[in-house]
## 1
Amino acid sequence: MEAQGGGAHPWMANSTEEAKAAMLRAIGAPSIESLFAQIPEDHRFRGRLDLPPALASEVALKRHMLELLKKNSDCEQNLSFLGSGIWQHHVPAIVDEVVGRTEFLTSVWGTPSSDHGRNQAWFEFCSMLGELVGMEFVGLPVYSWGCAIGNAVRMASRLNGRREVLVPAGMDPERLEVLKQYCEPEGSHGHIAVVPVAWEAASGMLDMADLKAKLSSRTAAVYIENPGSFGVVEARGAEIGKLARAAGAEFIVGVDPISLGVLAPPAEYGADIVVGTIQTLGAHMMAGGGAGGFIASRDEERYAREYPTLNISIAPTDRPGEHGFALSLAHQSSYGMREEGKDWTGNSVYLTTIGCAAYMALLGPQGFREVGEVILQRSHHAAKVLGGIKGLRVAFPCGFFKEFVVNFDGTGRTVAQVNAALRAKGIFGGRDLSADFPALGQSALYAVTEVHTAEDIARLAGALQEIVA
Amino acid sequence: MSDVTPREYHQARWNEPVVMELGAPGRRGITFAAPEAEVAAVGPAAELLPPAMRRKALPLLPEMTEHDTLRHYVRLSQQVLGMVGISLFGTCTMKYNPRLSEALGLRPQMAEIHPLQDPATLQGLLEIVWNFEQILKALSGMDRFTFQAAGGADAAYTHVCVTRGWLEATGQLGQRDEIVTSIQAHPCNPATAAAGGFKVISLPLEEGGYPSIEALKAAIGPRTAALMINNPDDMGIYNPHMKEWVRLVKEAGGLAFYDHANFNGVMGKIRARDLGFDACMFMLHKTFGGPKGGGGPATGAYGCTEELARFLPKPMVNKTASGFALDIPEKSVGKVREFMGNLHIVMRAYAWARGMGADGINEASDISVLANNYMEKELLAVRGVSKSHPDIGGPRMEMTRYSLGTLKEETGIGVGEVANRMTDYGVDAPWLAHEPWHFPEPFTPEAGELWSKEDIDTWVAVVRKVCEEAYANPDLVKSAPHNAAIGKVQGEGCEDPARWATTWRAYLRKHRAASQQQAAE
């Protein structure tokens, strides 16, 4: 479709011949081409760019994009139980409005006054997250939970000079792979060994004997998650923290903050550094685009001076009684010190951060309690129902939050077979764990949140009964 | 010189309290449905948790209604200038973000999809990714692209990871342990190289505004793992010897990575592969119309040759006879971030590229370079303004670096104060320069293809006005901003452990307690 508009493009003000001519005249240049004189001719690409035809009309572009997007099958039209790092939670309507505000959407990096509202929203995000995790120092978010773990482990290693981190053997494989990347492969200059600690077969919690056997003077940090990747709540957090500290290691705890209205804040059981996702605080799943991670700790100089993040501090202005916000400890970042800086920083997930601030303010203390309780009850109800189906077994039936492991060994079917059959019924079954955790047999991780009703669980159970019968 | 008068402007000033001070006990912003009887039958929620892990005291969060929460954040948004005024923030290519894509992004087919869904249920998204990869291949000459990196710096990091994978596979890891870059390259290049375990060699700038070939030759050798370099740089200077650079680095046995952060002025004009590069990266939140969002979610598209493609992060999107599939490259380096990347930004970039087409993209780089040279002519006529490397003649690319060194010498007013005063006229501060500053009081505007000639004229008129004020009434500039939501922030305490506070609870402990104590005494 040929675009009309006389050559003027809606996204390019100076695409009119008049504007181009006026600017060329002012410069005194004979042509636009002459302005590219710096590029040697043998660098130039003189061919025709092989791109699909332009859809300059919004009407045509919308139609094309919708044709593509409609080929996706989403979690609203289907009933989904997928989790494992990205979860389907309710995103309140006002969060979309706040995140969509042109001012937030298009800000870059102005002055503390021109960006004031955004900086305040960032500070509020850090403040509310600090209340949830029980920490006083919170950096601006990083790319993802996995990246936050990577940064935190590197912080720990710089603090104590050690080069080994203990992690749960049941850790989510996506996060584990990111951590391993940040810890560099063997043979690389800054390599940190990632050592898995086994889980107890009965409870899914960390195997304390294995932890004690692996803790040593080489241990830079002990990392646990609450809830863990199988959904299990690690009840012995305080004991693990004590053991880590006794060995001279940092104790890093990863959390899903939507649980923190009902679960103890990690600071209470001795965490030195807390990391986690921010996706569950009002970010859409977006095929993983909702990911984001945070790093928090006690407000001690020892920790603060190792943060690789941008940090925003409240500060006075030149008007008495007024406050604004400014960067704190920016010099230690890669912007300030290049290769001498702490890891690196850059664009992150700062728009998501503003939505998360609105989400936390909207929920408040009672909202977090309520959503946590509802998730606990709904997920335990679902586990009970599924565990009652012949051939199905819930691997760690007690003390989990949101996610639980369902084993299908007794059905003689693979998770892949079950999930394919569920998909035909408009249900996305739990994440298949069989390849990553062979010890669990044919198992799937089911995520149940506040969006799932009793009717949804009954529908899932009915479908599973038919499939495994 | 154009004859434009800066407009009178005043930002909204709400005196909006920090959210922690808002609300009242018992208010609710959202409630969650009580569980049905069969769900409630599992027993009280708290008892489903191990006693040691139950939360005892609720978090100290505000208790607000839905309306109050909305108003608070709308007010905060009104105290952000963003692109509502004029923002010529150099190196970030302030581009229009088509709102069609924002609207599409909220549709469930984009917003409510899970990354672990069966690929059969994500065919539309995977087709978008694959289609967009073909576009980037055409623009760069590279063979494959991954979108897992969550920003430009993360794409640089991806290159460091791919370099490690390649070194490992060729038995050179540990031996080739140096990465060469320029002091003028974006800090993410040396920083990610160091974070990936490499020693960094930063070449200094020489005559012509770029490092010399002799310096490069002296830096490379059997320990060279890679070159990570941008071109043109942020001063608008294009290194004409780049082909020779790449040849030398590859001859020495290293990889050559093109940081294409400054792609806007050369889109359709050069292709990384044609210059010999092994890999390159594009920023989709910059050059391809994705929103800035104050700094992400973003996407760094990392592209490379077939030879390096086997090391790319997993998974990759491939086209098969029966549709689009996710595959793991043979020697994948693993992951740099969970899942497949910010594919909602890829969706926006694809829509932008389709809305522009080949001619539009070529025209955009034409206009970017034209607009910058027009702006340069206007800006250099302002008293107090000079440009970097003034001895280098000829047109710059899509950006020029300027200096207010003269203004500072003559008036005592520096670029930070000028930036503050500019916002009084509804114009957001420009980018200054990355560390280290090679020129005193630097600033770096970039007009790109979005902003109109009138916008550029207005922007320059504001600089002119503020510089005139600096000569005539320096205190007016020094005490700016005057028309903003708040006064000038006094940030010195942000570096002091006794005073910095990144959370409200730290603020209360350090400041409220201190002031209460003072009052009591």
## 2
Amino acid sequence: MSEEVGTTANVFEDEYIPFISRWGMITNLTAAVLSFGPVFVLATVFGVMPTSAAILAGFVSIISVSGAFWIVEPISYFPVLGIPGTYMAFMSGNISNLRLPCAAVAQESAGVEAGTNEGAIISTLGVAASIIVNVIILTIGVILGAALIDALPEGVRAAFDNILPAIFGAIFVQFALAQPKIGVVALVIGGFMTWLLREGYLAFLPGVPSYAVIIVSVFGTIAVGRWMFERGMIRT
Amino acid sequence: MDYLDIANSLPMWIAASLAVIVCLCQAILFLRRSWIDGKKVGLTDEQLRAGFRSGAISAVGPAVAILMGMVALLVSLGGAISWMRLSFIGSVMFELMAAGFGTEAVGIELGAPDMNVTAFANAVWTMTLGAVGWLVITGLFTPNMEAIRRKLAGGREALLPVITICAMLGAFAYLSTERILRFDHQTIAWAIGALTMGILLTTARSRNLQWLREWSLGISMFTGMIIASFFM
């Protein structure tokens, strides 16, 4: 038995992860270069190039919002996504509304635990499925065009505003069922930080300080959860 | 030449497609490898299929919501860029904000009648530069993050799943409280989504209903969405 456990761990750590890390690095860095494809085409095919002052002004505006998230988000979501999920989720975007929920439901459906080797492999399948489905639906949508979507009754379009909070509630409960005490802790920390943000008490931080809310919520909950585990207040 | 003719031109579509193709290739490459190595670590065919199938089922609702958001981008940025940015890297809110910053930097409001090709190009530059950091940082440093995760667990294997559940609850508490504290239809959507999921998963687990596990998230999100829309 112990030998078998050793072998499966070796497959994961000696074959799977090195393969994923090598190809993840190659594909994500290739994608970083290819993300400049449209501006390259605009400059070379159409001769359209904004002044460097305009590009810099746009860049400074956006990086003041997104710059902190470049680091905070990968680190905060890593314990959930694992190595393969991190490469895929940050390549494909739409993380909280699509990739994380699909990773979580895949693990529930396969009956594997989040944070284990099996969990990492299964969440990869869920995220891959979500990428394929999303590209298919958006491609159909862009071919049919905005006219078709505009033809939908206003009520139907407005209703989709509510799908995101419903997903957040469902995923929160899926994990809170496993650790109800930590669920309460997380809501208290997240609620307090959100309140601070809303009341303007985080305004001393540079940029849009919602990055402070996410990092304190995630790592604050980890710190309290670990403390509770060490005192036997929760079990795995 | 109207800027939208350039935005919807064939060269722009080719450039956009290349990025989306890399994203799809990575997904298929990782999918194939996970399937092969998943079996080697002892996962059954049924578990692998259930994981993939439930991911696909649950992606439909959010993808349709993204499609609704894509309309907002389509009218001011054309098809190629909107399709590319939402299939790859971005999200609707982020892209709208970045595009707005880009056009404002040349003194034009996004989607305004005087929107021209220079404003369009600066919007695309801003969207590109604003998001490239995520690709570079994850491309270079993802394996190093595993060391951080192990450090958080203090070298104890048993603690790793607890750390993951804490991180997930922390992240979704952050996403949730921002909606709950609005005290409007979004709060109701959150509560109904949460309640439905609680009932479905408890039932699925106690009676061992595999199909219900796979559909639980899909059913919960639509129930929350539909009930909350009566309160709008």
